[in-house]
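User: I'm new to structure prediction. If I give you an amino acid sequence, what do you actually give back? Let's try with this one:
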Amino acid sequence: MSISLIVASPDLHFREMIRESLLNVANATLIAEFPEIALNLYIRVLHELERHPHAALMLDLSGDTEGALKALEKVRQAAPHLYVIASHYQSEPEIILSSMRSGAQEFLGQPLKRTEFRDAMGRLEESARRTTAAGPKLGRIFTFLGAKGGVGTTTLAVNFSAVAAQEKRHTVLVDLDMRSNGVALSVGAHPQYTLLEVAENLSRLDQALFEGFVTRDPTGFFLVGPPDNLEHRNFFTDYQFKEFATFLVEKYDTVVVDAGAAINDDVALAAMQISAAVFLVLTQELAAIRNAQRYLSFLMRAGITQDQIKLVLNRFNKKGNSNLATREQVEQTLNQPVFYGLPENLGTALAAVNKGRPIVADAGARSGDLDSALRAFAKKSLG
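Assistant: Good question. You get back a string of structure tokens that encode the predicted 3D arrangement of the chain. For your 383 residues, that looks like this:
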């Protein structure tokens, strides 16, 4: 049976050691690397288990031992059947015992020894034959990131949320594009409360309080975004947003994030790191493709896996022309398959914006190709 391993460590050298050690283990694959260990590590682990049910976790305790042990406890609660191998450069009985109490089945000292690592992989393989991993029980986050402004990121996020709600999924749309605040405009909403109130009340947030701060769209999804006043900035730290995101995935089926084109925003990046999918939205224009290339490199350096990133071609022209790359050229340039292509229908899109309604909620657009494509895209993504 093959071995699938997730490694979580802030130490690049440790992650490289794991990669090199796995080269000497038959049928072993490193499926994900997480350079950060936080309390919401379990969300990222569950997303990987959805794709690789028999994967195991290698967890480095060396950086912040106390914090890593707490993260391990949360992982164990969320995925009780997950096989966890803890590691530390200190091999004192107290460290080993603490890791076992927190939920690890194995402990390896650092630096890793080849024979000990190989033996641990053998025990992992034997355990995988006997154990059926439990599926994830949390909601999933889907983040929309534009390769540049004006590629239709907000339109896709709004319609994705509307389709999810129409499919009877308990859905929240979070607008993190602090500059444009375009989601409220797209659905004709005038929110009384915003993410500012969420941030101010984070320590006492429960579902009833949260739903008092959000706007409910007629299609059924909840919406919350930034205040209109641009003076209100930086009200969320990335740490606070991770806490907020943890609350959301524990209470709602589907969480959609409109990140605009803000790839270097710490809060947007925090959302992307725990997303089941990051939809990188681009068009067939050279500027969008070039930016998408830069964005892909940055995202992967930030610990977002290639499996998480989904290329979405908006306003897709199948034939292309002298000014537009073909789908094949986009895939070749970005070394990544296109997940979905959505046709251009500027008239339908503008009419929906002017009405302040999602395209999929507009009776006049129901029979159109764009409406059908938006529904098919969302259903493919939601599974």
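You can read the tokens as a compact description of the fold. Here is one thing that stands out. The first strand starts at residue 3 and ends at 8.
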